[in-house]
Amino acid sequence: MAAFWSPCEPPFQQRYSFLFSPASQAGQWRKTHDAEMTKECDLPLIDLSRLHCGDEKERTACVAEIGRASSEWGFFQVVNHGIQSELLQAVGREQRKPFGAPFEEKTGQKFLNGSYRWGNPTAISLAQFSWSESFHLPLSVLAGDDHACHEELEPFRSQVASFSYAPEVMRKASTAMADLARILAGVLAENLGCRGDLFADSCGEGSCFLRLNRYPPCPFSSDTFGLVPHTDSDFLTILHQDHVGGLHLMKDTRWVSVKPNPEALIVIIGDLFQACLAWSNDLYKSVEHRVMTNGKVERYSIAYFLCPSYEFTIGSYRKPSRYRNFTFGEFRKQVQEDVKKIGYKVGLSRFLA
Ligand SMILES: O=C(O)CCC(=O)C(=O)O
Ligand SMILES: [Fe+2]
């Protein structure tokens, strides 16, 4: 186990020793979900070049395919998404740099404006624990938006410049992921006969963010989550994962693992799309997903979260609605409170009508 130690690694075992004692690991929960595991699968793979090819029939077929995948899976992969693979490779290299800083530095308020997270401070069992570290970077800062030049973001801005030897890469990638997320949100709205800009227009740089994830090798890999099962609290997420694998999603009642595809980006439907369009069981699903650790190699991913402003009201566009109206700010606050008090996110069921 000493082999895993470095001054950059989060001290998971030391700080959470009560979770990793032989007694607490003997719990039954892990055995249960092992039995549920199925094989690696290929998600629906959608070629987005058809959205812009000028052939209306092709475009309509592509929109329908995106809609179908969003209701049957809540997850799909896209190729020809308009983000160059060189840019994705560069961002994959770039994102490693802040994680390479000593742990004590990463946890400091001055390092990337205190955006560092690791483990779960409230976990009381292994089932609630994530063996991973991440940085939550607001888009307004990465995009270098002068309108978002709040004083409190200044230290952050300079830190972005100093951690990154090529900050331009991060900026370009986040802008490109944001553009793609808006296009897809438009397609998803259009597929239901809504205005294409209905959701995307409510999403500003103030609330959208990029999360850099790192999953260190884990000596208890068969017992530990890299990221606990969750749904995303946004409209949709664009995810870029490296070649290692470990992402699982819930398909019907089983976990399936997602085979890494270097050319593709993964699209995940979030809670807000489910709530806005909740008038039928057949519509878009926000499905649970999780990351499993592995004992040998580290894994990286980068996720862009398309979120509305905190004042934006989420309400179903058809009646009767399954959920009451709520603002995104209320939703986030409730999620944070639940995680703090009970150790997990309850999510949309808190907002049933
Ligand atoms: O790392 C991954 O593959 C998934 C990350 C994720 O689900 C998240 O950041 O919400
Ligand atoms: Fe997620």
UniProtKB/TrEMBL annotation:
Organism: Vanilla planifolia (Vanilla)
Obligatory cofactor(s): L-ascorbate
Keywords: Iron, Metal-binding, Oxidoreductase
Pfam short name (any one): 2OG-FeII_Oxy
Taxonomy of the source species: Eukaryota, Viridiplantae, Streptophyta, Embryophyta, Tracheophyta
Membrane-spanning ranges: none
PANTHER family: 2-OXOGLUTARATE (2OG) AND FE(II)-DEPENDENT OXYGENASE SUPERFAMILY PROTEIN-RELATED
Domain Fe2OG dioxygenase: 206-308
Name listed for the protein in its UniProt record: Fe2OG dioxygenase domain-containing protein
Family assignment from sequence similarity: Belongs to the iron/ascorbate-dependent oxidoreductase family.
Molecular functions (GO terms): metal ion binding; oxidoreductase activity
